[in-house]
What we know:
- By secondary structure, the chain is α+β, with helices and mostly antiparallel strands.
- The chain has 17 helices and 26 strands.
Amino acid sequence: MAWSALKVVDLRSELKKRGLPTTGKKSELVARLEESDSPQEEQQQEGTGAAVPTGQAEEKAPVRQDTKKRDHEEDQEKIGNGGSNSEAKRRRIDDEATVKEEEQQDVKMQVIKEEEEEEHKVDHERMAFEHGEDDDEPLYHGQRNSGKLIRRGNECPYLDTISRQNLDFDFEKCCSVSLSKVNVYVCLVCGKYFQGRGPTTHAYTHSLEMGHHLFMKLDSGRTYCLPDMYEVMDPSLADIQYVLNPTFTEAAVKEVDLTNTWAKALDGSEYMPGLIGYNNMKANDYANVVLQALIRIRPLRDFFLRRENYAHVSTPLLERFGELVRKTWNPKAFKGHVSPHEFMQSVMSKSGKRFRIDTQSDPVEFFSWLLNALHQDLTGGKRKSPSIITQCLQGEIELTILAGTGSAKDSTTDIVQRVPFLLLTLDLPPAPLFKDALEKVIIPQVPIFDLLRKFDGETIQDDVRTGRRKMRITRLPKFLAIHVKRFLKNQFFKEKNPTIVNFPVKGLDLTKCISVPAPKATYDLIANIVHEGDANIGCFKAHIHRKSEDVWYEFQDLHLVDVLPQQVVLSEAYVQIYELTDM
């Protein structure tokens, strides 16, 4: 009989009927039954009255058989020495019962183990069905499969059904039916997202119901034809794969600022890579202006243009921010704008919904939070470790707290601290309360040099909570970020100071107003975030300088216009980023 065809449970049951040991692997159980079936083994059992293994079989005998034989010999020796025959017989019977009970227990435990493994296999198959994991297995060899698993473009009759105008990869990549983010495919005909590829998945059902046959996997860019179940490989799909996941070589990164060629979108409109508007989905204009300003920092932009620079510490926020940077400079985009939907989804998750798409927030708060969040993700939570954020924007100030005030109120000497910073805050003088003689509201102006004297190391700042302090810049960053404190908030209202800050767009020399550690400290403005309108109903805009053209552009969500430098100077600046010219 072919014992190897039976399951382990059936083999043990047959061994149990024959009074043979039931422990061991399946191969040992089969060998034991085959030996039991041989005439030599039957003759040996009839002659001796017990199955005493000899030769090769003796090596495979269980340890319990040897123990049982040894105990039997000891009992015989005990009888020969005058021991009680009945006592030895009773002991032998008890040992046999113990061995038999242990073997039964082993069989029971093995059966339980096999049942658990079977249940685990069923659970895994059920989860694979729910999550669409069957598309990671080899292609389905069913009735619809014509036998060739990979076809070239000239072998697939559906390539001409692709509609690139319907493809949009800016939104969250989840199934439009199950909302699952596992194994999501995009229909290349209608642009909808579906889960899975197997015969029981939503993508397969969509292909049967709508007659849409080509689907691309969003995490790999591989294209499949459903329900025929074969992969399509053709050079004509390369543009879609590049839009899905733009990539830049080191040589391409170096050419970013040297190229002034306008690209053309599918609708015929022209756009300049890098000068791309961001969609305001509801109230995320505060984030759009911050993103437009941050990506003008060249080392930061170049770092995120190549995913290899941060692949070892990849997090959802880093991935989405990097994708947004690469899409902004994509020269082969299908449209001349980008929606930061996926990025804002990761921001909402990371910040615990502190910053949302549908709720207005302060650009300064978002600017500070984003820089710190990116830094922590890049350093694995080690705040003092360097990153591309600190290399670009971090400076240092010397903070002196006068004795008897603030944290030095119990001290007789001043407390001196070295504090790193990513953003310097400048305080505006109070706005006028009265109109002038012509009954017109006076809009005051103040030079930025007057505001920067806050950090000359001599000006004393009085604060009820922090005490009397003096601040001096001890290390200048390569890119200086400045926040003009324009809004005053309390529990009852929000008030805006309309004071105009006079600043140069080129040649901001800090040595004219403060003592700096470097002999030269000249900065050029590269980004300027402004607020227009009242405190509660105004809007944010971003002024961006394109160095290769020496032209200023104004961004307001999707709208982009070029402006004169004089218009930039007269704006109500809120956040500014300067680049050190002596780099």
